[in-house]
Amino acid sequence: MKKIWFSIICLIYLSAQALVAQRFEGSLKIAGTLSQIDGDDIYGFHKPGYEIGGFVSARLSKTTALETGISYNLRGSHYSKNDLLRVAISLQYIDIPVLFVLRDWLNETGEDEYYQMEFFGGLSLGRLVGSSSLSGVDRDFKKTDVSYILGASYFWSKNWGGSAKYTRSFTSLYEYSKNGGFIQMTSYYLSLGLKYKFN
Fold this sequence. Notes:
By secondary structure, the protein is mainly β. The protein is built from 1 helix and 9 strands, in the order αβββββββββ.
């Protein structure tokens, strides 16, 4: 009887492992970023930065998935040589995105089939873990950020691909009055980088 139960447990375990292997996949992303902040009195994506993160996606169907993970990114704003104002803000965030992924363009050549295109969008909850500014205003920045994300990835192999995305905050980083008006500082950025899938 013990042998039977042991065999059943082993079978359930192996089946679960096979299911997990088929349904879930991990990935790493690294990207360069260009960012700016609305409401800082300067314009343009002049602040370079980067982001790096690890992600797990759960397959919902053959062409759809739900992805989440954790990432670190550096963004903010910076004056250019044409700006009269000298504004420089550096922001460091830990983000937890939740994305819906749509896959297309099935590549059936070679031994492994894979989708060459991924389109994704969703929300991200971020925590400000570090900041600096020339004026010292960063001491009053809000610590929690909620953003939306839109992007796409192209894969040239089963494991390797390139990814581009746009991220913009719903929530303001800082609020102040100016010339009788109410100004909200809101950050957003573009990123372009590499994605590696463990599958």
